[in-house]
Amino acid sequence: MSAKIIDGKAFAETVRGKVAVHVARLKADHGITPGLAVVLVGEDPASQVYVRNKGKQTLECGMNSFEHKLDASTGEAELLALIERLNNDPAVHGILVQLPLPKHLNEDLVINAIAPDKDVDGFHISNVGRLGTGQKSMVPCTPLGCLMLLRDHLGSLSGLNAVVVGRSNIVGKPMANLLLKDSCTVTIAHSRTREIEAVCRAADIVVAAVGRPEMIRGDWIRPGATVIDVGINRVAAPDKGEGKTRIVGDVHFESASAVAGAITPVPGGVGPMTIACLLANTVTACCRANGLAEPEGLTA
Ligand code: NDP
What we know:
This protein is α/β, with parallel strands linked by helices. Helix content is 39%, strand content 16%. It has 10 helices and 11 strands. Strands 1-11-8-7-5-6 form a 6-stranded parallel sheet. Strands 3-2-4 form a 3-stranded parallel sheet, with helices on both faces. The model has no long low-confidence stretch (mean pLDDT 97). Residues 142, 165-168, 170-172, 189-193, 196, 209-212, 230-233, 250, 270-271, 274 line the site of NADPH dihydro-nicotinamide-adenine-dinucleotide phosphate (NDP).
């Protein structure tokens, strides 16, 4: 193996440390405590784990955490009324509605009801538009985490060829916009892309956000390229025992790490950065709401 391992777990800890320092300063100098409200509708087990982790890490950074757990049968009007209350609550600087929502709720309607300045997930149509036009916005957490890892490893990204595999609204598209903003030459590949292996081989940076276990292999990677693996896929692991599973990325780590210059592992790469960036976005939103300087290195 030749690639440098980009340690997202360690970097996420650094980000959380910076957030905690800034939170302490906000409290000491201005008497302000940033607050994050997380809304969970229903009992999806994975969502419950995410929400618990978000709340725990929010408190660990010295911020206020407000959890709102609603029954799976909650109607749209009730959910929208809660969002309106949170929009108007000065103690709440960030609002996150955990996705996916139960089928009877209109996700777009709910997300677009969040005040854009409190939309710490960066999914509100106004933040999507601002990011797309290069204006100051709230930036989706996972792509922001990828960008931080890339900047930390490569310094300036200007002029590099970047290929983003995947065009989802939550990862692929905002990732491509962020790379473009940092002056990369950006290609977005997806399920209809022709000769996708060759497209990836032309890249200095490959960001994989596909949801297909180990699809991107070493022979798709240009020697020395930087590979960011966003994928989280649970696959059978018969070697660990019957019925056991393991988590793998969208990149075949063994073959890709023999060719790449640097690569994020799964787990321990992009994953831990997502919540760290949620905390960073909450501090950023709090600073903006109060007309204060934003923390350096925590935004795009
Ligand atoms: P989506 O399913 O929304 O999007 C997947 C994208 O991959 C689509 O654009 C699709 O193309 C493309 N795709 C699918 N199959 C192929 C293929 N064979 N060749 C090329 N492109 C393909 O997924 P997400 O963006 O939500 O997530 C992607 C991965 O990232 C998942 O593994 C997910 O679990 C993980 N993830 C990790 C996070 C983290 O915190 N680390 C956060 C969010 C997601 P098309 O549009 O043409 O269908």
